[in-house]
Specification:
Two copies of one chain form a homodimer. By secondary structure, chain A is of the alpha+beta class. Chain A is built from 14 helices and 20 strands. Strand 13 of chain A pairs antiparallel with strand 13 (about 300-310) of chain B.
């Protein structure tokens, strides 16, 4: 058991080392690595491997079906292994004119450091290294074995991560994992998510003719692709958001009493969101636990885009030959994207829409971590000391990520801890980290590492 | 009664004058007059007035709420008045690279003359003048009074013609009218339309939030503008094209036995169209009289365009705050655009779609000419002699135009006669007239003028 005096030493060491890890962060940010534009990907992977080696870890660049993955390893006193899932790719910096300093140059203004990727996710790479160094410096060695898996396609949906994990089970074998994000919520309280919804993103396309027709000619006799699409879509969902595909809900696992307990304790953001987005009302419950459950434990069917015929100003009398919709299903445990595509196809066929073509554009399985896992409890306990408040636990969040292979292929509990805060502007211009939250994220991570070695 | 020898003299005179009217046509084509781009509108109106005066007519340029209208007049022996409705504006010439000769320069290749607007509608202006000149030369005077109303906004939907006719009833008062188009169909047979459907073109717009949201955040709780639009549209029409708006059909007048007689005689184009557009099948009847009736005597509700959210390649996980549809209703006698907008609003409100905003983008009333009117019969008889075949009569066509104020405000029968043919390429690159059909159109028009003066 590590005592408070040792944690105080670790905290001091973090402060002493801070400039060194800001320098490392500056080197990472100076190397563009935009996966959507395939900009700087390989050089950034090399840089990450170099930095891992400088920090005393083994590192190799492992090819994947997509961008290379940096895999690192450091032996500890205890063979128990802690995995760090991170990513070195970043979002595009555009629109450039909205940046107040060059996006690929770490710039300090006041208590904040600015650059593209400085929070998402290069700040987390630097913070993990800072935490590991402080723990090692104070304890004389790493208390547990540490592995890194740092991918280069998170910002484009991690299309190859499931396969990569399956293909490298031994290499990545571990006992627990810290996720690529973490930090504090809008109230400044530390927050952790223990699950992510899956995604099944499809394009639906209807083609009814080989060319558009004049609406005066064809209006009452020609099939119309836009009408076909509207009619097909309308069979998928009712006005309350209930999905009408046969058997769609059969694998939906409701939240457990423990999930509901955590949800109930989490802040109610229904009022803040309604105001931020100018909503008249929500689809179902308007606030409270029921609203929180619906927001994350319900699967969704979202029309993300509609395109057909004439879309410019004024009128054009055209009868469209083609129409497409982008449709995003968010999935909850234990649904799978493959299951949803199959049920969608069967549903469309049964309703006479054999002509509506489905193209699968993105797929990720939902995943959840057991909230009662000791590593989760360890992470919550570690946060108390740093943030002086109880961690908010979200049993699952609405978004998606490559959590499933970690939870189900590697079989590890996954927690979040990090340097994010409500004004981080991830994906937006002037992305930044606040130095106070940066240090707190490092301290929290260091406590998790130290306590995990003792557990 | 004009005898055949006189008609033969008129035909000869048309041949003798041909170059003069091709020169007039060349002058008209050399003056761009693109209403959609407001290019050369006023100079073209001036040129048309100048040419009318050179041809011995009075002409004035009368302001309208939009582009100026050229109104002309020539006294005849008989006070009975024949009105020529024409337009001096043309479609844009773009795409320019597909033209084989400069669009605003009359170019002869073989038996064809090429230029933008040479068929639609400057060729008809020149042809009417050529017919009038030949008749006057041979008979010594015009056999009837002739008026011209030549507008400059036909290619943008004649938004001000209804009002212009209402405001100038006396100026335009007449006994019969020849429409701006006419000529032969794909089989080379002369064809006349005696009616046009009306149009009520609206934009439907839904707004559910002040900004787009992440689909992972809002999918199961936020209202989604694309879904609202899909659901609202779906209440408007069933899959067979039947419009579900309450009372929508109450003013629909079915075709008369006489209409059906003409339709039955008209060629059956169901096979040709199905092949041209690559259609699997039509919405209702597949061919024959029932198909012909459905094609033109049924009102329509056509989705001309759909726009919402993300429409680019791949996936973007966005929940759209706005969605719009362009919807074109074609109306049959005795429906009106005002009635349809009112019923649409009531329908949307009754179905809980008060939030779907309607913007009226274009409106024209449907109109029909009595097929038994003596002027219609005169026009059919005049064609026999020129084309050696019976005129095909379409009791109404699927498209729309400003026919209503002529039929209902001026109270005149309206016929078609002209220089169009199946390869005219109106609105497309390499618009042209074929000189044989050009001359036949002039001869037919001359016979109508001469016979009307005698009637």
């Amino acid at each position: 058991m590590i005592d408070n005096a040792t944690y105080a030493q670790i905290d001091r060491r973090i402060e002493e080392n801070l400039d060194r890890y800001i320098d490392i962060l500056a080197r990472l940010c100076a190397q563009p690595s935009v996966s959507a534009q395939h900009l700087g990907i390989e050089p950034c992977a090399e840089l990450v491997a170099t930095i891992l080696r400088e920090e005393g870890f083994e590192a190799e660049i492992v090819p994947s079906a997509g961008n290379p993955v940096v895999v690192g390893r450091g032996e500890g006193r205890n063979p128990k292994t802690l995995l760090m899932y991170l990513h070195y790719d970043v979002q595009p910096a555009e629109p450039l004119e909205l940046w107040e300093s060059p996006p690929f140059e770490l710039t300090r203004r006041g208590n904040r450091l600015y650059a593209r990727g400085i929070s998402d996710d290069k700040g987390h790479i630097a913070a993990r290294l800072a935490a590991l160094a402080a723990v090692r410096d104070v304890l004389g060695e790493l208390p547990c074995t540490v592995k890194f898996v740092i991918e280069g396609e998170e910002e484009i949906g991690s299309p190859n991560m499931q396969r990569f994990v399956e293909d490298h089970r031994e290499l990545l074998a571990s006992d627990a994992c810290i996720w690529e994000f973490g930090g504090v919520n809008v109230y400044g309280d530390p927050e952790m998510s223990l699950g992510m919804r899956g995604i099944c993103y499809v394009e639906l396309k209807v083609s009814t003719a080989n060319r558009d027709a004049h609406s005066g000619l064809g209006g009452s006799i020609f099939p119309n692709a836009a009408w076909r699409l509207v009619q097909a879509l309308n069979t998928l969902r009712d006005e309350n958001g209930r999905i009408l595909i046969d058997g769609f809900y059969e694998n939906v696992r409701p939240p457990s009493p423990r999930d509901c307990e955590y949800l109930d304790r989490a802040p109610d953001e229904s009022g803040v969101l309604r105001e931020m987005y100018g909503l008249q009302r929500y689809l179902g419950a308007q606030s409270g636990l029921e609203w929180k459950i619906q927001a994350v434990f319900e699967p969704t069917c979202t029309v993300c885009g509609l395109t057909s015929g004439y879309q410019g100003p004024g009128s054009k009398t055209v009868l469209p030959a083609e129409a497409t919709a982008k449709v995003d299903f968010r999935l909850v445990p234990d649904q799978t994207p493959e299951e949803v595509v199959g049920k969608l196809r069967a549903h469309l066929d049964r309703h006479g829409f054999e002509d509506v073509a489905i193209t699968l554009l993105a797929a990720q399985r939902p995943a959840k971590v057991d909230p009662d896992d000791p590593f989760v409890q360890l992470t919550i306990a570690a946060a108390r000391d740093v943030y002086d408040t109880e961690m908010v636990v979200q049993p699952i969040i609405g978004g998606s990520g490559p959590l499933y292979p970690f939870v189900s292929v590697l079989g590890v509990p996954v927690v979040s801890a990090g340097v994010g805060y409500s004004d981080s502007r991830a994906h937006a211009p002037n992305e930044n980290v606040d130095l106070d939250y940066f240090v707190k994220g490092i301290r929290h991570t260091a406590r998790i590492i130290a306590a995990f070695g003792e557990q």
